[in-house]
């Protein structure tokens, strides 16, 4: 295995205002098919639904919802939502971004999504809509029992960028995300950056891609058994598998990637490592080493076809705020 540790200084989390990942919101032309897939096959619960919009919760998560589906003429990533501890932190975050010249979509204020709360939206450097919120009501959730192959929570979101170094710099500088690890190859250079906003190895990752798009959204399962049961359920149902099952080196988490009905890559995972942020130093992992991509050696090989599926379609929502 080829690995290099970056002797970077320990990150200062003193001014970090983002606490965690809340939800990912998707616009889809095939709304009914997607709704059925995410509820009946993937294992999310329709917490709140309306005409052409659904808020889907993970049973083990206190978040009001982990996925929002919206009926639309074009497929797009509507937004990615992150939490803050207090309304004062939301205000400080908005002020920080505004002072740095980041384009705000909305000013901080009361939210009318499930759980209410206080938040605002802005465009990141690639034109994605990002939401920051606090004081969202806690959803009544429960412990996922042994053998239940449904998501506990939304684990992380990975995004494609044609200028990933700039995108990584944006999240480090403006949102105080910290770099956990980086993937590279001798032929392609650096291709993926894993970023954290709490001790979880990553809640966001940025991949080098040909255009701005969602790379994948990942959902945490209770454990290895539940992860494998969920993987097997989708395989038996004929859902198209992209890659897996296996275990990554960076993050040490398991992976099984599938395509939803409109071609978004989604993942079942478990056992994402929790870091000691005071002592952690980022690594450079050479993903041309098969053990880096899959420690178990059980997944289908990472090749151009697998990579191309995760490029996804070009996002039609760049610098266009979602209507809701």
UniProtKB/TrEMBL annotation:
Family annotation (PANTHER family): GLYOXALASE FAMILY PROTEIN, METALLOTHIOL TRANSFERASE FOSB
Name the UniProt record assigns to this protein: VOC family protein
Domain VOC: 20-135, 153-271
SUPFAM superfamilies tied to this protein: Glyoxalase/Bleomycin resistance protein/Dihydroxybiphenyl dioxygenase
InterPro entries: Glyas_Bleomycin-R_OHBP_Dase, Glyas_Fos-R_dOase_dom, GlyoxalaseI/FosfomycinResist, VOC_core
